[in-house]
Every structure is written in structure tokens, then in C-alpha cells.
Amino acid sequence: MPHGQLSIINDDLESDIRRMRFVCNVTVLSQAPPTDGLYCPAEFDGWTCLNYTKAGTTGHAKCPIFFETDELAHRYCESNGTWQIHPDSGSPWTNLTACHNNKTRPSTDVEHHMFTDIYLFLAGAALSMVLLILSLIIFFGFRQLRCDRITIHKNLFISYFFSALTWSIYYKAVVLDGEVVLTNPGWCRVLNLIAQYFSTTNFSWMFCEGLYLHFILARALRTGKKLIKCLIIAGWTIPFILTVIYGVVRNAQVLPLVLSSNRCWSFDDDSLYIISVPIMVSTLTNICMLINIVRLLMTKLRQIPDVNQSRKAAKAILILVPLFGMQWLLFPVRPEQDSVLHDIYVHFAAVIISIQGTLVSIIFCFCNGEVRSLIRRKWHEHRLMNSKRRPPGITSTTYIDGYSIVDSTREVTYLRSKNNTEPHNKPTENIEFKCTPHVFTPLVEKDGNQKKTDLKFSEIEDV
Fold it and tell me: The organism sits in which domain of life (predicted)?
């Protein structure tokens, strides 16, 4: 399933809980109850294993593993042979006050391994959020970047940012805090639902990116403001509807305390298919669109003799992989538990999930030729305008990507070369313009005598 922020990151924790349940079944639950009086039943509550406890006394159990303590949790057995009920939750309640003390022993290898993937995710998510913020500042800051293609990029970047932010808060405030998971307050489930929503928007906007690019290249639909508005509405509202349905269904489930409907929804259950199935459909659709785009690209490349055709085709495909969410196909099936491949799968998935924002910000912003040109031009303009000492009557010219910036004692004038392919040391005929033009960097480079291609391959290279 491609929708795996929670199931993958918590996979080690879930594996350890299954192991603890197995041990509890063998050592306690499989034993016959005592016959010398009234006892509360033995129980595994999802974290602790409670033995048969005589009525009117207190039962003890080891604290959950993530508390890193040798203290004991306890639960009171009522005189009628039932476990004490918590007044707020209405369910049997294990007192973990002693577990909240400072940890009394170092972490074991199992405990360290259990949270390694969460820490990997938090580190990668922090890097992604920083780069996404910088990318959004660039996209919103340059007037020249206000176009339909960049508008879709902005929405994709915003969804990645809030996905990384909400999941980071959830893991830090909920999963790494055993008390919150055990008490299962309502706010932690709401936080989980918000994080699930932004994860779903990641895939919806990857689908919108692929759909827009496919329309551009295949000319299947004339692009315009109506298309962009439809994509914006669909990209944010469809995930919202799916997430609301998922939240209602999961919250309505009446399941035992040990199952996944509790514990702040920290484990996946079958209701997640409400979200996962549409995501799988959108991913498969993206695969089909990617194949068609590559077909169109290869067809056009064959028409233009170029020794670098293979390199350019490979570059385009690599650019489209994170845009279309194809990285999820690297591990289509989760390996079996307690295997080397499973550990590799979990670590790899934790890294890939957390650095998705990093990948898209680097590829579609910092490696974008148009963005780099604008930043360089802005930097040189800043240096020229803030130069403190400039000898009068001396003019210096700096060439940037086929443009010349002329610095005089009174003004800065932008001049564009008539033929950008000529060496900069040759005389050129310059034409003055007042605003920065669109920098066209086609994927398929054209010689001066060749006709202009029909497909806008710049939408791929400068995507």
C-alpha cells in the first residue's frame, strides 16, 4: 500500500507488541485460572500482561517497553472479580504512575531499534520542511514565476510541508509519549486524522501534477484558468472527503481496548482502505500517464538527431519519478517480519517518506533553470545597485544565461542578445526590455536551422 506513513514507521513497534502478546499468551493466558477463590481474569491490554489477580487485591505487571524503566504498573481487582474501570474511558484501567518516573536503565537493543525509524523520519522531515519553506519563498517572491505550472508546484509543496509537520508533531507528541498512547485522548486521534489528510493530499497533488503535464504534452485538453481551478479544488477537497469518511468509520468501530481502534489510532486497520484504495488507483493512473509521456518524448527525440538522446530521455524520466510518486514501486511488497529484507524495507521507507519534500524542492525548484537564472540575476542586480565605489564613465558588462547586465553610473539596463548561442566575446545586437522574460530551456535542444518542436519539453526540464 503506498499510503504508509503510519504503518511503516510504527512497524517495529507493532512487531514488538505482537511478540509481547505471544509471550503473554504462552506464560499467562494459556494457564488455567485458579480455583481457590474469586479472581480477575488474566489479560493482555495491548502493552502490559496482567496475571490472574485475586478479588480485592492489586495486580502488577512490567511497564511498557518504551518507558525504559524496571518499575511495575498496577491494576486493582474489584471485590466482584472485575478489573477497576476508569471513570473517563469506561474501560479497565492500568495505573502507570510508577512508569512515568525517570528511566532506571539504559535502552536495550530492541527498544533502540523500535524507535530508530521514527527518529529517521523526524530528521528527514525537518530537512524537507526547511527546503520546502525556501522553495515556497522563491515561488511566491518572484513575480516572473507566477504561472499555471508553478501554481501546481506551490500546492504540491504546501501539502508536503504540512504532511511532514503534522506527522512530526504526531510522532513526537503521541507515539514517543507512552502515557498519551495509553490514555488515548481525543486530541491525539484528531491529530492523526489531520496527518492522514495531508498525506492523502500528497498523492492527490502528485496526480494533479501528472494530469497537468499529460494535458500539456498530449494536447488532450486546452489548459487555462478553468483547468487550474478544477485541479486546486480536486487536489484539496477529494482528500478531505475521503479522510472524513475514514475518520467517521474508524471512530464508530466498537472494538476491544487491545485493538487498533484505540491507542490514538497509532496502528493501521482495515478502515484505512477508504483512503488507500483511491491512492492506489491514482498511482496506477500516474503510471499510465508516465508511460504515455515517455512515449511522446521518445517519439520527438527520434525526429531530432542528437548524440545525447539517451541522456536526455533518462533525465526526463528521473525528473518525473518523484513527480508521479513512482518511488513507491521500489518496494511493492512488504517482506516478512523478522527478516533482513524487512529491516531494509522499513529503514528505506522511513527515509523515502521523510525526504519526499527534499526531493521535489531540489528537483523542481533549486535545480530549475528558470529559478537559478532569476536568483543569479537578482544577486548580480543587488551587487551592482549596492556597490559603494564605481569609477565614473566606466561600464562593466556581466553575461548571465544569454543575457547581459549593463552597469552604468545612473541605471541598470537589461539587454538581451539577439543570438544567445554566439560566444559572449563577440559583438551582439542588444534589445532593451523592461521585464524579465521567460527563460526557455527545452529538454530537446534545437540547432539554429531546425524547426521549433511542437511539444513543450521545457515543461519537463523546468518542471
Answer: Eukaryota
